[in-house]
């Protein structure tokens, strides 16, 4: 057990792909936290999806020892969709390594994570990474960081996560400038839950930062927000695996096996206190997370509805940004309306549901949360196109807007400005960081949901980066557009669109459906309509079967007789709906990406 003066808690924050996980590998290697033979690339990225995509999705804590000092590191994600994970990490530490790629310089998410760190009042340690690369511009990036932080050049460390250059200097600087914790060991227990996981056999395992007091195995603890009580079955440090210890004291980061089987009883941001002191004041929680994107998620097999519910509950245990509520569709059955922080968050969650719980899903088109004000004075929040009331009852609809920051080389401004303007963007200001420009815009969240990031990369030859955050609501002229396939509404394809984009959006969706839907035995009508009025339509020709192949001669009337019989059969099939169209799940994602 270490005294608080011998403890340093810190995390690594950076833009995506700036080398956080690689640097964490070198820190683990240098401190001997894991044996050389067991060390693998991106060791703290525990999910297969993280390794395949080369990104960090989940924060991951680990304890290291260096020069008789206990170092608690939390590796964090870099993508804008997982900003909430970063805020949770920062709430549990006193210092942060601000990592900047020597070849890319300061990016949008670098700024966003820096602002989060400054809000939490943690000590910032600037580090330039990847200095070993031939195209590294260390001097230029150093000037950008100096302008950003107001620091001196000698305060910025140089390192290479790949080769291990500068790793010892980083460890020494952490011990030097990151302040030790200042908890009250004699006070009653107060610990902040910053993450949690569910184990099939051991129940809920919470990751905590002990602020005051201490916790030991066998102690009866209480969760301040839910008032649930349980006995500590085991506790310890993450080194990086679960390593049991006899005690966790003020200032330390570790895990607690609670034995709880109900995931709702343990919430991220809650305070753990001792059951003997139920009136102990709770710690300030995290900022409340608000989902940006909502989609309907339905199991392909209706019998798997309960399995989907259990899976979402367990995923939400260690992903506080994931919010869901029951939803019913006449076509898709029972499912859930799920809120996400962005499309990458949606894709990752969908993939985890498929891999970890063997669920095949149908995912509807994404939408944002609209505020709808009715003529009778009532108001409601609409998260699904099907919840939008009839247009004659609506006084006005308000949609969420975001403040958007784009960092790009100054030479690409001319291609980016028209793109943002075409998405209803409102220009604010431009700042310059070295030879790059920081553009500030406001625009509707709906405008950047699907393909905006891809278009931004194209307009800037891959050099631009972006970050956004919610910035209020404004009035929008929107309507619900339904999609009919074989004259039957495909509820999962309904969307809320701007009135002046109806025809264009309708043509795009019907044209795309014509390309991706499987052909049927009859002519398939594909229509987009608003209030019963068709605004776009396509026809998918029937799948032809050569019914005359068995003929080997004879009069032509025999051939016509068979063709007429086939034609009448196709008409009956279309009229009676015998060939109802099954829409493949991948169709929804392909339309979403379009």
Automatic annotation (TrEMBL):
Main enzyme class: hydrolase
Compartments, as annotated in UniProt: Cell membrane
Catalyzed reactions: GTP + H2O = GDP + phosphate + H(+)
Biological process terms in GO annotation: positive regulation of translation
Binding residues annotated for GTP, in chain numbering: 17-22, 129-132
PROSITE patterns: G_TR_1, G_TR_2
MF annotations from Gene Ontology: GTP binding; GTPase activity; ribosome binding; translation elongation factor activity
The enzyme's E.C. designation: 3.6.5.n1
Topology of the protein relative to the lipid bilayer: Peripheral membrane protein
Domain of life of the source: Bacteria
The Tr-type G domain, residue ranges: 5-182
A UniProt-annotated Pfam family: EFG_C
Keywords: Cell membrane, Elongation factor, GTP-binding, Hydrolase, Membrane, Nucleotide-binding, Protein biosynthesis
GO cellular component, one term: plasma membrane
Family label: Belongs to the TRAFAC class translation factor GTPase superfamily. Classic translation factor GTPase family. LepA subfamily. Belongs to the GTP-binding elongation factor family. LepA subfamily.
Purpose: Required for accurate and efficient protein synthesis under certain stress conditions. May act as a fidelity factor of the translation reaction, by catalyzing a one-codon backward translocation of tRNAs on improperly translocated ribosomes. Back-translocation proceeds from a post-translocation (POST) complex to a pre-translocation (PRE) complex, thus giving elongation factor G a second chance to translocate the tRNAs correctly. Binds to ribosomes in a GTP-dependent manner.
UniProt name for this protein: Elongation factor 4
Source organism of this protein record: Candidatus Uhrbacteria bacterium CG10_big_fil_rev_8_21_14_0_10_48_11
